């Protein structure tokens, strides 16, 4: 991602918003999803499950395998 420098806080605050219909919106969304995938790569097992407690659900969730890192 490119690095941008701003002279004021207001200038930086205006730059973070994307207007609806902006052609750069798709690229920005792709970057956000890619960053999330790199930070938390999980392989979620398919299906619906019920648990009696949050502890039981958390224990099952802890067994999810991590996805391999990309490049």
C-alpha-based Rg, rounded:
19 Å
Query: Beta-strand percentage?
Result: under 5%
Tell me the span between the first and last alpha carbons: 16 Å
The helix tally amounts to: 3
In terms of topology, how is this protein built?
Elements: H1 9-15, H2 25-39, H3 54-61
Structure write-up:
The protein is mostly helical. The chain has 3 helices and no strands. The chain has helices spanning 9-15, 25-39, 54-61. It is elongated, with a radius of gyration of 19 Å.
List keywords for this structure.
71 residues, mainly alpha, 3 helices, 0% strand, elongated
Kindly summarize this structure in a few lines.
With 71 residues, the protein is mainly alpha-helical. The protein is 42% helix and 0% strand.
């Amino acid at each position: 991602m490119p690095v941008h420098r701003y002279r004021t806080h207001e200038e930086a605050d205006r730059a973070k918003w994307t207007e609806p219909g902006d052609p750069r919106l798709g690229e920005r969304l792709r970057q956000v999803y890619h960053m999330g995938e790199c930070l938390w790569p999980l392989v979620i097992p398919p299906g619906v499950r019920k648990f009696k407690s949050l502890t039981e659900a958390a224990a099952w969730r802890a067994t999810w395998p991590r996805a391999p890192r990309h490049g």
